[in-house]
Specification:
2 copies of one chain form a homodimer.
Chain A: H1 7-19, H2 22-29, H3 33-47, E1 52-53, E2 61-62, H4 64-91, E3 97-103, H5 108-121, E4 126-132, H6 135-142, E5 148-152, E6 161-167, E7 170-175, H7 190-193, E8 198-201, E9 220-223, H8 226-234, E10 240-243, H9 244-253, E11 257-258, E12 267-268, E13 271-276, H10 283-303
Parallel strand pairs in A: 3-4, 3-5, 8-9
Antiparallel strand pairs in A: 1-2, 5-13, 6-13, 7-10, 7-11, 7-12
Helix pairs in contact in A: 1-2, 1-3, 1-4, 2-3, 5-10
The first copy, chain A, binds a DNA duplex through residues 8, 21-23, 31-39, 41, 54, 56-60.
DNA sequence: CTTATCCAATCAAGTTTTCCGATAAGTATC
DNA sequence: GATACTTATCGGAAAACTTGATTGGATAAG
């Protein structure tokens, strides 16, 4: 009653079920047949019930109870294999977890493709994901909460960070078709531009405090995330820069219009993988950084 | 390398982490302190890594690897307890699984309340849920695929079934307010009624084949589920009976109108728990049947 | 500074468990 | 009925586990 079932016993149990017999299980596990018999009867004694119906018939059959417990046994063995795989990875220097901070400008298709392939390549390495605008993602890396960040150019040049170019991102100033700028003569000079409210992502981290990028208007809407910026611009409340991947369909269908502005041409916003200089990548993190580079390349190839 | 970690070792590991020390873990587990030492170092050897940082310090601290594996270890022990609990239940005659077939007329709030309380009362008993209209649910019980059914009156009187009244269900003929019957003089006689298309749930099981209940119209829409019936009636394509619990809000707001029909008054449709006479309920199934009765009672009390 | 206390590691010895190989008893198939 | 295959069981050997005592080290109190 005190005694626990053993993983060994559960493994025997599974082998018997899968192979359909005690002897076959013994062969599969490379152990004596008596061990199987012994193991099964011990397991049955500890659980206080019969797992197999073996009334002299050639093949023992699972009882109903056995079938119910089979699922638990499978879970246990799967968990064991997971644990062993993780331990094996850790023993070889793999991280137990990668904490990734991404800027909101990283195209979602790139992010999902990378995460998906990462999961199959490193099933034992957990992923923790932080997202933030502009400085926020870099800030998380600076504080050591994330060990890899994918951020824009401006953030990657801080002295405590090591950065590596992984790809680019087309940003274009846009507005709703009903917006006056959409119908103005191109290119719009700076002096005109500043008269129209601009939607700007603002960020509360200390690294970008007070700095503005491509802000020309006197009047700004400050939002904290890309979705809100997108919504405000779509609603015609103002103009602003948005990544082309996000609004590709809307540009095609005319629900948004690309603006031609003198001081703000459509620009390629480079993205960098960053880490703190005193926290080198483990194998999984550096694999992930390479994968981001490849995914960015694939992504811009498809867009063209 | 071949040797598996043992559940015993994992339990020791957890105890050390929770108690914060080897000796404390020994006290908790009522075992000699050397066992803890032995067990931890064996586990570390088998996994090929260090779990604790113990550089002469008073309290051993988890390494990063240890923290990663801790979660797996917890899962394993939780799984073990689940398995043992299920085995304990099975040994005492509990079912490993209850297969429940419900008629679509069972109010969803009743069903969810019962399933929720069942899950807390019998966490080790799995539930498989079948839903169907009219005969379908009873059919599943007849065929032995489900061991408990909650069905309407007509299905419960088959000779191979044992049935028990668990509650009732108000059914009312209704139509959209735009429907001619909604504005007709009440009560509508049968001869008039048959001129308007009726939406009827039809069921393909052999037990109700060819039988119809409360079908008066010459022209019928035959659908296979309640949601479709509901949608067709709401759209004004026809009239038909719907359970009051489903359309309570729509009756209040006037989006549906209760009809007063001479041959089809609002009726109480009784619901029965059924089982095959040669397959008696186990303890969990009979608890569930009782719970359905209580839930139906609560439900109709609240509706009043 | 000394002493007492608590801790983890290790060792030797006894006990229990597990394993193997052989054997027995039984069942399908030919 | 012979044969080839099962599962159960037993005895002896090997391995693993447990215990209790001891050691060396770190902390806290006197």
């Amino acid at each position: 009653m005190e005694a626990h079932p053993t993983l060994d016993q559960l493994e025997i149990f599974l082998a018997v079920v899968e192979e359909g017999g005690f002897s076959a299980a013994a062969r599969k596990l490379n152990r004596a047949q008596s061990v199987i018999s012994y193991g099964v009867s011990n397991l049955e004694a500890q659980l206080g019930l019969q797992l197999f119906e073996r009334t002299g018939t050639r093949q023992p059959r699972l009882t109903e109870s056995g079938a119910s417990l089979l699922q638990d046994a499978r879970r246990m063995i799967a968990g064991l294999q997971m644990l062993r795989a993780r331990a094996h990875g850790l023993a070889q220097g793999l991280e137990g977890e990668v904490r990734l901070a991404v800027d909101v400008l990283v195209p979602m298709p790139v992010l999902t493709v990378v995460l998906e392939s990462f999961r199959t390549a490193y099933p034992t390495v957990g992923v923790r994901l932080y997202t933030g605008a502009l400085g926020a993602a870099a800030d998380v890396v600076m504080r050591g909460e994330a060990n890899i960040g994918i951020v824009g150019e401006a953030m990657s040049s801080l002295p405590e960070l090591v950065s590596h170019l992984v790809g680019g991102n087309q940003i274009s100033p846009v507005a709703a078709p009903s917006h006056p700028l959409a119908r103005a003569d191109a290119p719009v000079p700076k002096a005109v531009l500043r008269e129209y409210p601009q939607v700007v992502i603002s960020d509360l981290s200390r690294w970008t405090d007070g700095r503005d990028f491509h802000v020309y208007a006197l009047n700004t809407w400050r939002v904290s995330d890309l979705a809100t910026k997108h919504a405000l611009i779509s609603a015609g409340l103002g103009w602003g820069g948005l990544p082309v991947w996000l609004i590709h369909d809307e540009l095609e269908s005319g629900r948004l219009v690309a603006l031609s502005l003198e001081p703000y041409p459509p620009s390629n916003y480079s993205m960098f993988a960053i880490r703190r200089d005193d926290k080198p990548f483990g194998p999984a993190a550096s694999w992930m950084a390479e994968r981001f580079e490849a995914a960015f390349a694939d992504f811009s190839r498809i867009r063209k």
